[in-house]
Structure formats: structure tokens, C-alpha cells
Amino acid sequence: MSTERRSNTERTRRTTGALVSGARLLFARRGYAGVGLAEVAEEAGVTKGALYHHFGSKAGLFRAVVEQVQQDVGERVAAAAEKEADPWSRLTAGCGEFLAAASDPEVQRIMLVDGPAVLGWAEWRRMDEAASARHLVEALADLVGSGVVAPQPVEPLARLLSGAMNEAALWLARSESPEADLADTVEALSRLLESLRAGA
């Protein structure tokens, strides 16, 4: 790669990174509908033209923000799971970390509230699948395959658990006692997961 091309690539990376970071801050604070493109460009220190050049529209920029938030949550979940030695502990730790990550107001607003509304349910689900849902399917498939979880179809089970955790995260977003309710939710999730064990 030539020096000029490398310089252009680095400039593009800096510009798009600044736009996504600035937009993430504003979308988290005021929601998608409450943010204008001019203030995003100002927050990022770039022109409005640069924003259109790289993302095409406000929705295009928001999609990149949602993707980043989903990736961050997925990395938190994976890091928590990887600390555990056995597959069952990895599942429970990952699910618990998802609830903890999703209780962050920024994650709730961008990923769970505005994400499906702005992008549409089908696109939001596709992105969620790419970011984290497949990991849940893989973890459950390993547990069913090893006999830890009672034999059953994995795909519907993964969707049921994912839906339950997303719904719990939305409920936590409206909580007046978020720390206590998060602890209660993690405990309830642990009991729910325990019921899946073979012979439970």
C-alpha cells in the first residue's frame, strides 16, 4: 500500500471513528429523534458533508453506532464467559454479563429502544444475530450435546432465552431501583437456566 493510500485510509478511519463516537454520545443522551446531523458533525469536529460521504444518512450513521454498541456488549459477554472453566459456568456468566451490560442506560437507549424502532425489527434482529445470538446458540448446542442440558431443539431455546433477557433489560431500563432489580433479575435468570439442566 502506498504512503498516500495509507494516509487516506487512516484519515477515513479517524473521521468515521470520530463521527460514530460523537453520535453515540448524543444518541445515548437524547435519543435518535432528538439529535440533528449538524450537531453530530460539530461534536465530531468534521463537516456535515463528511458525515454524508461516509454514512449516507442519519440512519446510516445510527446503524454504525448500534453495531458498535452490540459489538461492545458481545465482547463483554465473551470476556465474562471465557473466565469460567466449564461450559455451564460460561453460559451462566455470559447471560449474567449481558444483563449487566444491558442495564447501562446508553446500551438500553441505543441498542434496545431506538435500535429496533429506527432500523426495523428484521434488520435489528439480523445485526443482533451477527453480534451475539449465534454465541448463545453455540453454547446451548455444546451443553445439549454433552448431556448437561436436557435434549431439545436448540434454536427455539436460544430465541426464548434471548427474548427473555432482552425483555428483562427493557424492564430494568424503567426501574426505579436498578441495582436491586438487576440482582433480582440475575437470580431469576439463574433459576431459569438451572431448570434446563438434565435431571433438574
From TrEMBL:
DNA-binding region: 36-55
Domain HTH tetR-type: 13-73
Top-level taxon of the source organism: Bacteria
GO molecular function annotations of the record: DNA-binding transcription factor activity; transcription cis-regulatory region binding
InterPro entries assigned: Homeodomain-like_sf (IPR009057), HTH-type_TetR-like_transc_reg (IPR050109), HTH_TetR (IPR001647), Rv0078-like_C (IPR049484)
Keyword annotations of the record: DNA-binding, Transcription, Transcription regulation
Alphabetical list of Gene3D superfamilies matching this protein: Tetracycline Repressor, domain 2
Pfam family name, one: TetR_N
Family matches, as PROSITE patterns: HTH_TETR_2
The keyword Nucleotide-binding appears for this protein: no
PANTHER family in the record: HTH-TYPE TRANSCRIPTIONAL REGULATOR BETI, HTH-TYPE TRANSCRIPTIONAL REGULATOR RUTR
Protein name in UniProt: TetR family transcriptional regulator
Lineage: Bacteria, Bacillati, Actinomycetota, Actinomycetes, Streptosporangiales
